[in-house]
Design goal:
Layout (H helix, E strand, L loop, with lengths): L3 H4 L8 H6 L2 E4 L2 E4 L6 H11 L5 H7 L6 H17 L5 H11 L2 E3 L5 E3 L3 H18 L6 E3 L8 E3 L10 H18 L1
Antiparallel strand pairs: 1-2, 3-4, 5-6
Length: 184
């Protein structure tokens, strides 16, 4: 977990695709689409590389071509709607098509590397990671943070987790409840 001030993201997961879905951020009663910011996709790639969720070969390959920001945001939005609301049931089958458009190869450590960069490569890699998570039943464990101001998704392995981060959203929610009771 990383503070908003440091990265702009309210929560950073161990899952590359969850971090991609979390490129919409709610803070201070404002919704920010981090991909809409200048060089948003490149900044996200750099953050994922710095957090070792992308290796050097993946990072280098993805930056070789330009990104179709509209296609990337559309993919993110459909992914969020599928995970949160079950909308777009065809989303899972579309993931296979993304991988076929930009086939992956595997490095010596068996990490998937897209055959091309830019949007096709990024969508292929994210689709592969999502298909792995779907197969491993991780999608059923993805939850949205209970804090009304937070848009972050997280993987709940315990079945009891409510917030993306207890340090940020959990404490803030509990503090609001405490002060509301005190005010009464």
């Amino acid at each position: 977990m990383t503070a908003i001030a440091e990265t702009g993201y309210s929560y950073i997961s161990d899952h590359l695709f969850v971090n991609f879905l979390n490129t919409i951020n709610g803070a201070d009663s404002q919704v920010t689409d981090l991909l809409m910011q200048e060089a948003g996709t490149y900044k996200w790639l750099e953050l994922m590389y710095s957090r070792e969720l992308l290796n050097a070969e993946q990072f280098k390959k993805l930056k070789e071509e330009t990104f179709d920001e509209d296609a990337i945001r559309d993919f993110r939005d459909r992914g969020r709607e599928y995970v949160l609301e079950g909308k777009h049931p065809e989303f899972i089958s579309s993931l296979t098509g993304n991988v076929k458009q930009a086939p992956l190869y595997f490095d010596k450590h068996l990490n998937p590397v897209p055959g091309c960069g830019g949007s096709p490569g990024l969508l292929s890699l994210l689709s592969y990671k999502m298909l792995e998570a779907y197969k491993d039943n991780i999608f059923s464990r993805i939850k949205k943070c209970h804090s009304p101001a937070c848009y972050a998704l997280f993987v709940d392995y315990s079945g009891r987790r409510k917030w993306c981060s207890m340090e940020i959203c959990g404490n803030r929610t509990k503090a609001r409840k405490h002060y509301a009771k005190k005010k009464e």
